[in-house]
Amino acid sequence: MRYKISKNKKGIGIDDALPLIVFILIAAFVIFVFRIYDSTKLDKTIKSIQQPKDEMYGHEILINYLSQTDSKGNSKAKIISELYVGGEYDQISIDLQAYFKSKLEPIARWDIDIVTVYNENVLSVKGGFSPNADKRFINSIKIPINSQKPNYLSIRLFMSRDLPIDFYSAKVG
Amino acid sequence: MLRRNKKGIGLEWYMLIVAVFIGFTTFFVYHFSGQKIMDNFIGDYQFSILRSVQESEKTLFYVDQSAQYSLEQSVYDLANSGGVSEIEISDEENFAGYECGKYNDAYVWYQVIKKDGKYDAQECFDEKSAETNLAYTFNRNLDNYLVSYPGNIPTDNYKYEFKNNLEIIGLAALPVYINIFKKEIPEDFSTEAREIKPKPLDAKQLDKDTTKNSEGFRDFTGTDLCAKGSRCVLKENAFQQLVKAQDAAVKKGISLEVYSAYRSSEQQQALWNGDTPEKYADRYKDPTVRIKYVCDPKGGEIKCPHLSGNVVDIRLKGKTTKTMNSAEWNILYSIMTSADSNKQPLWVKYSNEPWHFECCNTPRYSRAIEKGVTSIV
Question: What does the alpha-carbon distance between residue B355 and residue B101 come to, in Å, rounded to a whole number?
Answer without folding.
Answer: 28
